[in-house]
Each structure stands twice: as C-alpha cells, then as structure tokens.
Amino acid sequence: NTHFRKPKHWWVLTLIIIIIISSVFSFFVLEQLLYLQVFHFLVPKKDSLVSNSCPRDLFLLLFREYKLWEMTRKRIQIKKIDNISSRQVTFSKRRKGLFKKAQELSTLCDADIALIVFSATSKLFEYASSSMHQVIERHDRYSAIHRLDRPSIELQIESDSNNILRKKVEDKTRELRQMNGEDLQGLTLQELQKLEEHLKRSLTNVSKVKDAKFMQEISTFKRKGVELMEENQRLKQVPSLIHAHSYRQSSESILSNSSNLPEDGGSNTSLKLGLP
C-alpha cells in the first residue's frame, strides 16, 4: 500500500502562494483607495473654508497618469467598437490626435497637408495646413497631368496582349517556314534534329490519316457497288412483272366482255383464250 507523502518544504510553497494572493489583493485595494482619495479632493466639503485645489490637482494628475499607464499596457484590438458612446469618445480622441500629428508634420517638414474626415453620423471634420481649396486644386492638377503622362491600365494591358500575340504569330510563322525547308541556317544541330523528328512524326500522322481516308473511300465504293447490283437485279425483274400484269388485265377484260353478251340458245359460241 502506497501512502500519500507531502513534498518536502511544502510550507514554503504555501507561503509563496499566500504572498502572491496578498500582493494581488493589496494592489486592487490600493487602486480603490487612490480612486476614493482623488474624488475626496475633487468634492470639497460644504463647511470647509480652505481651498484644497493643490492637493486635488496633484492627486488628479497622478490618477490620470496611472490610468494612462494602465491603458497603454493593454493591447488594443483594432475592430469596430460596439458601444456607441465608447465609439464616439474614441473617434473624438483619435481625430484630435490625427489632426495634431498632421499639424506637426506640416510644421516640421514644410508639407502641404489636407485632411477630410466624416464621422459615423456624417459630420464633417477637416484640417488644412494652408487652404483646403488650394490643396484640392493642386491634387486635381497633379492627377490630370499624371493621367496624360502615363497611359491607363487598360491600354497598357491591351498593348501587352498585342505584343504577346504578335510574338506568337512570328514564332508560328518561323516554324512553318522551317518546316517548308526555309530559314534553316540559323538553327543548331540539336534544333535541326528536333525539326527532323517533328517532320517524321508529322509525315507518319499524315500517312495514317491518308490510309484511313483511302480505306474509307474503298468501303464507300464497295457499298455503292452492292447497291448498284441490287438496283440492276430489280430492273431486270421489271419486264416480267409488266408482262404478267398485262396478261392479268387482258384476262379480266375478256371475262367481263363475255359476261355482258346476250343469251342465244341456237348460236354456236366458243371461248378462245389468248393474247389479242
């Protein structure tokens, strides 16, 4: 049976944990006390005749610096702020900081700067180091000159496509001339061997297609010959069919005529069958 044994110096670990918990608790307690102390100086007593402006300003400054230091420790996530009030406060602070940085850049570097900002409520905020109208006109002039100097993206793409197609046409034309035995002087031995192999494969393919076409035409001629022989046999049978048909019609006409003659008991009649 194994018994649970406490690790050596377990009381040291327990003491360290207690010290850490006490430090965290003391930190939050001091923060709350500082917060209450600041507001104690911010709200003066009614029966106090002595001004506490200096201690109040000192504690207010210390508390503000502490809060700023605490905010800088936290990593701000760049995403949309869901709370509308916080969003408006952040927009106001960031806008002021942006305009301040633009002013510093214009002053330090002698740059002509113009900023146009629309808030979420469609409110306009603008800043210009010289004149907003002059900066916008300067931007328009530069854009117009830049468009005239440089071709548009569509024209550049079309020109590149035309160059690629032109090169392909030239390559195919040169290959056709080389297959016809022209312009072979500039080719190396390896290129000539490749051309020869290509022509052999092409000749083999042409021969295969030609043989297939030839066999197809032979089978077509055979089929037509069989059809002509069958048609000839049918034509040979036509005269006998016509003769039999004529004979049948003559017999039917004679029989119909004999049935229409008047009856005469004393007359000697005889029926003669045969062709007229």
From TrEMBL:
<feature type="region of interest" description="Disordered">
    <location>
        <begin position="253"/>
        <end position="276"/>
    </location>
</feature>
<dbReference type="InterPro" id="IPR002100">
    <property type="entry name" value="TF_MADSbox"/>
</dbReference>
<keyword id="KW-0175">Coiled coil</keyword>
<dbReference type="InterPro" id="IPR033896">
    <property type="entry name" value="MEF2-like_N"/>
</dbReference>
<dbReference type="GO" id="GO:0045944">
    <property type="term" value="P:positive regulation of transcription by RNA polymerase II"/>
</dbReference>
<dbReference type="InterPro" id="IPR036879">
    <property type="entry name" value="TF_MADSbox_sf"/>
</dbReference>
<dbReference type="GO" id="GO:0005634">
    <property type="term" value="C:nucleus"/>
</dbReference>
<keyword id="KW-0238">DNA-binding</keyword>
<feature type="transmembrane region" description="Helical">
    <location>
        <begin position="12"/>
        <end position="30"/>
    </location>
</feature>
<keyword id="KW-1133">Transmembrane helix</keyword>
<protein>
    <submittedName>
        <fullName>MADS-box protein SVP isoform A</fullName>
    </submittedName>
</protein>
<dbReference type="GO" id="GO:0030154">
    <property type="term" value="P:cell differentiation"/>
</dbReference>
<dbReference type="InterPro" id="IPR050142">
    <property type="entry name" value="MADS-box/MEF2_TF"/>
</dbReference>
<feature type="coiled-coil region">
    <location>
        <begin position="162"/>
        <end position="212"/>
    </location>
</feature>
<keyword id="KW-0472">Membrane</keyword>
<keyword id="KW-0805">Transcription regulation</keyword>
<keyword id="KW-0539">Nucleus</keyword>
<dbReference type="Pfam" id="PF00319">
    <property type="entry name" value="SRF-TF"/>
</dbReference>
<dbReference type="GO" id="GO:0046983">
    <property type="term" value="F:protein dimerization activity"/>
</dbReference>
<dbReference type="GO" id="GO:0000977">
    <property type="term" value="F:RNA polymerase II transcription regulatory region sequence-specific DNA binding"/>
</dbReference>
<dbReference type="GO" id="GO:0003700">
    <property type="term" value="F:DNA-binding transcription factor activity"/>
</dbReference>
<keyword id="KW-0804">Transcription</keyword>
<dbReference type="Pfam" id="PF01486">
    <property type="entry name" value="K-box"/>
</dbReference>
<dbReference type="InterPro" id="IPR002487">
    <property type="entry name" value="TF_Kbox"/>
</dbReference>
<keyword id="KW-0812">Transmembrane</keyword>
<keyword id="KW-0221">Differentiation</keyword>
<feature type="domain" description="K-box">
    <location>
        <begin position="155"/>
        <end position="247"/>
    </location>
</feature>
<feature type="domain" description="MADS-box">
    <location>
        <begin position="71"/>
        <end position="131"/>
    </location>
</feature>
<feature type="compositionally biased region" description="Polar residues">
    <location>
        <begin position="266"/>
        <end position="276"/>
    </location>
</feature>
